[in-house]
Design brief:
205 residues, 6 strands, alpha+beta, two-stranded antiparallel ribbon, four-stranded antiparallel sheet
């Protein structure tokens, strides 16, 4: 396994040039969004004033059609620019995947996959399946001789109800990196690995 200092050196020397390229793409997207907003606003104002000054076109129907066309153009621009996942995917393949490979070359990284919600319950750290669940940045591999390890970012939520009549509010059950390790070792009790702010790195039931 690599040390923190080795990881910092790798990031500064090898990854930083590629990160800067991704950051440049992000800045270009921001510029395109600003120009798009200015352009749509100008078309909306000038077009609406033009319709208003023309007696033949100054009607609710023509104005409604004009607003519809502007709305469609805005939606298409949003889909092509704001909803463009190239930056998102580039960041994952440029940064996250290479960091995973640097730390553990034998691991497999899958950006869109994640630890399944049933695995949270199987850990017995959580008693119920989350009502809302999402995740990404999944990695799996073998450490040592035969210890299978898999982990990913996950966000699990449940609905907290004050009483039977309330709709309740969504609360975060878990948010962060969830790791599953299959250790071929016999324990005298039932081990639980928890974060340090929960009273220690591990305990037995």
């Amino acid at each position: 396994m690599k040390t923190v200092e080795q990881l910092k050196e790798y990031f500064n020397n090898d990854l930083m040039p590629e990160v800067l390229q991704v950051e440049q793409k992000r800045k270009m997207i921001v510029v395109r969004v600003i120009l798009l907003g200015i352009g749509l606003l100008a078309v909306l104002v000038l077009g609406y004033l033009g319709l208003d000054s023309n007696p033949d076109l100054n009607s609710v129907g023509w104005k409604g059609l004009f607003l519809l066309v502007v709305g469609v153009l805005g939606f298409v621009a949003y889909r092509e620019i704001l909803n463009n996942r190239d930056f998102y995917n580039d960041f994952k393949t440029t940064v996250i995947e290479k960091i995973v490979k640097f730390i553990a070359p034998s691991f497999t990284y899958i950006s869109h996959k994640y630890i399944q919600p049933t695995q949270l319950v199987e850990s017995k750290l959580f008693s119920h399946l989350p009502k809302k669940y999402k995740g990404d940045d999944y990695a799996v591999g073998v450490l040592g001789r035969n210890t299978k390890v898999e982990f990913s970012e996950v966000v699990a939520r449940h609905r907290h109800r004050l009483d039977d009549n309330s709709k309740g509010e969504w609360a975060v059950t878990f948010k962060g990196l969830f790791c599953v390790a299959q250790v071929e070792r016999t324990f005298s009790g039932q081990p639980f690995v928890v974060a340090s702010d929960h009273g220690g790195a591990a305990r037995k039931a």
